[in-house]
Amino acid sequence: MKKRRLLIFAILLGLLTLFISFSQFLSPSSEEMGGTEKDFSSERALDYLKEVAKEPHPMGSPANKRVKDYIVKYFQGIDVPVEIQAKLVKDIRDEKFAAEIGPETVENIIAKIPGTSGDDHAILLTAHYDSVSEAPGASDDGYGVVTILETARALKQMPAPKNTIYFVLTDGEEVGLLGASAFKDRTDVLNKISVMLNFEARGNTGVPILFETSPNDLKLVQLYKETVPYPVAYSFVSEMYKRMPNDTDFTEFKVTKKLGYNFANMNGLEAYHTEIDRVENSDEGTIRHFGSYVFPLVKKFMMMDAKEFKVIEESKSDAIYFPLMKKIVVVYSEKVVIPLMVVLLVLTAAIFYYCFKKQVIQIKGFVLIFFAMIGSLVAIFIFYFLLVHLLTIVFYGGINEYSMVMFGTYDTTILTLMLLLAIVFSFFFTKWIAKKCSLANFVMSTQVLWILLAVMTSFTFKGVSYAFTIPAIISLLLILPIVLKANWAIGVYRYIAVGGWTVPSILLLAPIMYLMYVAQTISVAPIVAILTALITFPIVAIVNWLKTDDGKA
Q: DSSP secondary structure string, 405-450?
């Protein structure tokens, strides 16, 4: 009965943690954004989108010229000076490339709100206005374009900024970042820029995420956290993006060594570069969330002085960052990663030394259980790999050039069912182990899996190391009194010990699993299933271990 209560407690606490954690993926409401002329309005932005994304408008097409003219007239209508930067494609790449793509000239739109203190610390807002030939480009990159247009309108309702603000809508992004490459010629502008913000989309819905920054970004991310009311940012996404064969205009701009943020939403991949990327399929909440990033940041940067910029520019550390829930982002220096790992290893060495000395765990049993779990994870991976490919055949899915499996509608139902299957498998596996061996051996072997992942990521993938290091440290600290048989480590404390594993592991790892799916589709199901098992194994092991008064089976 005691075990059942602990298990029910862990399940309910896990569901509550999921609910709290995933609140970060909720966009702000219209009421939260404000309703005055000086506020960013997603409703107005959506009206602009109806003009920008009427039809496909690839570079060089008549439709693209219409979009360009609309944007130019818009800036002129709100009294923002605007110019066109034109450059021949053959002068950007070469004549062979120019002949292959067809259009001869790339045309960037450059608008400017002058600052009262000159251009020494100007701000650059950028997105691309061309689309692929198959899609109207409502999200890619209509979301970025209309976010900039509405930001410019709202800024014009305010007193003149201290620092100049440039709005650059590039052309030819979809055929090789041509506009961004051409814009690097404008050293008269770039030399004055202190910070740049780029807006992209990789789907038609979901919250925008800060997925890339300029190097040494600790102060930059801290400012983002302090300034933006509804921040969503992951250092693990930034590191994962570096390992992917993707580029944006930011790729060209960041060689200038300026401070910079790169934002994009990733949900709704089925609309990416397809005919359904239309206004009627757009998500106003996504546009609103873009506005909740850009408008506060621009208002902050446009009034900053040279000393404030210098503090950010002189930062010599990269940041580790992740949300806990809506409105709350944790940021700390990458320099803390190795010390945290050292703390974990010292704690691990002390606890395991005591456990082996006092015969709480036995080497033979511990090793057998550890390798049994490794074997189960390998089996899970193989099973899910085969299952994904079977589903691809059954549902007539396709595998694109990036090994992403597409079933048509980008639905989480299949993933949810597969995760539930992984949880059930893990539960019964741990129940079987619990009947066959010492529960103390079982509990400590589950901890070793997390400790190994914490050490590996601390050296090779620092941006995600927090998701393994922090839960492992908390869990070991809470297990320690039980191992030492402290008199007070009974009753309510056992619920604290179970919660101490359940909450951090789900809070930090579940959103990562979700974003992996969003970024890479159901093709990552084998990895997500393994991570699900890694969360489930310790919970069930600890619950079984604590079912008796002395902590032994």
A: EE-SS--SHHHHHHHHHHHHHHHHHHHHHHHHS-HHHHHHHHHHHH
